[in-house]
């Protein structure tokens, strides 16, 4: 069993879709291989880099506003499981 699967919320991990930016360390061959393995092993969907726009005005909104606010709100909770994180996100 994959280490992430042990920590993942069994009822949540298949409904997750991971989106990353095109930062060089996110597009490396080793990262892509790891993401493909995660997708196959636990069913977490990975958004293809071809679906991520480089210059969309919508891309940075989450990076610079909503994500920061959510991170700040969740930092007080310190969840230890994925289920705990999702619960905190829903409550915030």
From TrEMBL:
<dbReference type="GO" id="GO:0003676">
    <property type="term" value="F:nucleic acid binding"/>
</dbReference>
<dbReference type="InterPro" id="IPR036397">
    <property type="entry name" value="RNaseH_sf"/>
</dbReference>
<protein>
    <submittedName>
        <fullName>Uncharacterized protein</fullName>
    </submittedName>
</protein>
């Amino acid at each position: 069993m994959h280490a992430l699967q042990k920590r993942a919320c069994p009822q949540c991990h298949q409904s997750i879709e991971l989106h990353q930016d095109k930062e060089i360390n996110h597009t490396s061959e080793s990262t892509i291989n790891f993401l493909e393995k995660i997708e196959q092993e636990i069913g977490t969907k990975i958004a293809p880099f071809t679906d991520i726009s480089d210059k969309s005005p919508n891309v940075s909104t989450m990076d610079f506003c909503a994500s920061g606010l959510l991170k700040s709100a969740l930092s007080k909770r310190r969840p230890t499981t994925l289920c705990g994180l999702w619960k905190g996100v829903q409550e915030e």
